[in-house]
Specification:
Layout: E1 2-4, E2 9-11, E3 26-30, E4 32-34, E5 37-45, E6 53-60, E7 68-71, E8 85-92, E9 95-103, E10 106-109, E11 112-115, E12 118-122, E13 138-140, H1 142-145, E14 148-153, E15 158-163, E16 178-195, E17 205-206, E18 209-210, E19 212-229, H2 234-238, E20 245-249, E21 252-253, H3 259-265, E22 273-280, E23 283-290
Parallel strand pairs: 6-13, 7-12
Antiparallel strand pairs: 1-2, 1-14, 3-15, 4-5, 5-6, 5-10, 7-13, 8-9, 9-12, 10-11, 14-15, 16-19, 17-18, 19-20, 20-21, 20-22, 22-23
């Protein structure tokens, strides 16, 4: 498969066509397939151990929005740095998964080196079910992968990477302290205005004015809901609650976003004002808070 994060396109290739062709400025790495899932080896520098690079085995999680997950104590060097905060990482079978968010000085994969990536550290109890083989030390997610065009060759157990225009972007995380999830479809009324034209498709000008026809259409659009709110966060302090349905973010109707775009909005920059309107049991409420960078 080929994953192009810039064009948001995935191409699938038949394995009988052989290995993918090498390209200029690309790097090829071996992967291991464990229970149908791809793993690769990389190196991380954790600030608690100075400049030493530690080898790690990482699950390739192209659907995960984080840059890196590291499992504490999977190696003695892998420990949460002193500067961290507790945050929501996602949902598991037993409920909400919390972990320590921080940064590490660098991540290295062959010829590629990325500075100050964001990392989520999970404790050994949380990672028991996640470790489908004992050598796993964490995951590499879209926060890193989106900086490349990615080819994965499962039959020949290889991955090929080529830097794209995202490569030098700074790493950030969701600074809203809100976990937002997809809430199904909603029926939305949209207004369309059309200028009246004659039989020759010319605009009808009556007394130096234009005539419009207003038409309404109904379409199914995505809905998003707040799954959880981090305690003592700016979002909680202004009054946002679990199960609030998001209607509007900074003047844009929520159904105009994808879930990925909402997450990007919450990652933009420190101290950015977020104006959010929600539906709480039929009541429309408005809130304002500022994104807060903690590490």
């Amino acid at each position: 498969i080929k994953i192009n994060y810039i064009t948001k396109k995935i191409d699938f290739y038949e394995s009988k066509n052989g290995e993918f062709k090498k390209c200029r400025k690309c790097a090829v790495f071996p992967i291991r397939i464990i229970r149908g899932k791809p793993f690769l080896e990389a190196k991380v520098q954790v600030d608690t151990i100075g400049n030493l690079l530690t080898d790690v085995n990482l699950l390739i999680d192209s659907g995960g929005s984080d840059a890196l997950w590291l499992f504490e104590e999977s190696k003695k060097e892998i420990k949460t740095p002193n500067n961290f905060f507790v945050d929501i990482l996602g949902e598991g079978l037993s409920g909400t998964i919390y972990g320590n968010r921080s940064r590490i000085p660098s991540f290295k994969l062959g010829i590629f080196q990325l500075e100050k990536p964001t990392v989520s550290f999970l404790d050994s109890l949380t990672t028991i079910n996640a470790k489908i083989f004992k050598e796993r030390n964490g995951s590499i997610g879209a926060g890193i992968l989106k900086r490349f065009t990615v080819w994965i060759d499962y039959p020949h157990k290889k991955i090929m990477l080529k830097k794209n225009s995202n490569f030098s972007e700074k790493f950030n995380y969701n600074m809203s302290s809100l976990e937002v999830i997809y809430n199904g479809k909603q029926l939305v009324r949209e207004e369309e205005k059309k200028i009246l034209t004659d039989g020759y498709n010319q605009q009808i000008d009556s007394n130096n004015s234009l005539s419009f026809v207003t038409r309404f259409s109904y379409k199914f659009k995505p809905s998003f809901i707040i799954k959880s709110v981090v305690k003592n966060s700016p979002a909680e302090k202004v009054g946002l609650l679990k199960d609030d349905i998001i209607l509007n973010i900074n003047g844009i109707q929520a159904h105009e976003f994808s879930l990925g775009k909402i997450i990007e909005k919450f990652q933009e920059k420190n101290s950015k004002k977020i104006k959010i309107t929600v539906d709480r049991k039929g009541q429309k409420l408005k809130f304002e808070f500022f994104l807060k960078q903690k590490v």
